[in-house]
Amino acid sequence: MIRNLLRAIGFGCLLAGGILYVTSSDEESAGTDVRQMKEQIAQLQSELATAKQELAIAQTTSSVDKNPKKEATDSLPSEDSTSSSNQYVLTIEPGANSTVVAAALERAGMIENADEFNAYLTRIGLASKIQIGDHEIDSSMDHSAIARKITKPK
């Protein structure tokens, strides 16, 4: 009788050990999988944030800067730029607002301050009258001449 009891206890211990082994290895691998998934999610979220920033920059720059035609190099304008003027073809696409246009003109070196030009367009009521298409801008033009050029219907 004691022999049968010891066999049953031994068999029970073996069975319990096998069950614990199988379930604990599943939990460990599941924990590892969850940890890896969280790391991947964090990495993807950071990549998404970077992509959103790059898209915002690309939308503001590519909607206006498609056809630069400068006679000088793409470097910063030289100090004697008053004696020679640079030509620039400003491409305004549908959806571009005065802020985007002003920023593109500033990047191209056609104006000195985008905020001032945008304020000028708003003050004289031309900010909403910008015409889409290609506009030839000269660096010798003042704000009023540029405003007339980019708001004149073709």
UniProtKB/TrEMBL annotation:
This is YceG-like family protein. Residues 59-86 are annotated as: Disordered. Residues 74-85 have a biased composition (Low complexity). The lineage of its organism: Bacteria, Bacillati, Bacillota, Bacilli, Bacillales. It comes from the Bacteria. Gene3D superfamilies: Endolytic murein transglycosylase (3.30.1490.480).
